[in-house]
Amino acid sequence: MPEQTEVRLPDGVRLHVEVAGAADAGVTVILLHGWTLDGRSWHRQLAALDEVLGASVRLVAYDARGHGRSSCMPLPTATLAQLGDDLAAVLDAVAPTGRVVLVGHSMGGMTIMEYAHRHPDHFAARAAGLAFVSTTAEGHTHTVYGLSPRIARLIRLAETTGAGVLARCGAWRPPRALLRALRPSIRWLLFGDRCDPTDIRLVTSAVARASLRSIGGFRASIGAQHRLETLAALAHLPAVALVGDKDRLTPPPCAESIAAALPATELTVCPGAGHMLMMERPDEVNDALLAVLRQVLDPDGPGGPAGTTPGAPPAADRAPA
């Protein structure tokens, strides 16, 4: 069973953190969830990585500020910049030494980019591999919800207005009865052709735990972020990017631009899948994460070019994810 702990941040926010594996493991994997979700999003990846790699890795998943079992925060700190700072603080608290592989879904992927942008020396000293799942480095540039651009603009306007209202509602949580009524809309927005009933229940439960301040407060920062230049400086790291071709929030052009900024990145597009890839396509996500981890753990092995070390440019060939 994972160890449950808490990281208290300088502004008083308390983050709920779950850690599995030995403190002296060769690599620590940090899994960062998406907007309105929580660390439970990664339950299939946590189980698979533990089963395959065992004591070789330490696994850390935490709930972002205002999400899950973490405490709410002052509204001005509901930004991606703050989440990047929080990631640096979590690393210092629970994995102060050793190499780390950073895995981010949606807002979690954007958090990794913000951490690299705001703490470049810290990042360079720690990061050994990257995985970007259903995320973007370009804000809402490519987000049209699978609809016509005109309708998408109207939805974005309504969403932005609504987010401003929710952000002022503080630590209140969405009413569960309302979320049950909205479950078909959540299913349409977040999932592709297939959706396991247990997955939609987990997602609905996660949204019910997110404070209204976090649901509304992070929206402006998420829509405005642009970090392709930051990514371009990370091209020496083993990395993967995955996206579903039915993703309405971060469609394939989002992952394609990440892969273009990181030319050695293995890009995987999952047919029929939506935004919740780690639930919809766990095998593909698990395989991609294992491909990165094998390169980090054994750079001289078949999964990585001979002589590769963290911080050194790899050869052009890369094992498929």
UniProtKB/TrEMBL annotation:
Residues 297-321 are annotated as: Disordered. One of its GO terms (molecular function) is peroxidase activity. The keyword Oxidoreductase applies. The keyword DNA repair does not apply. Residues 307-321 have a biased composition (Low complexity). Residues 29-288 form the AB hydrolase-1 domain. It comes from the Bacteria. Keywords: Oxidoreductase, Peroxidase. This is Pimeloyl-ACP methyl ester carboxylesterase.
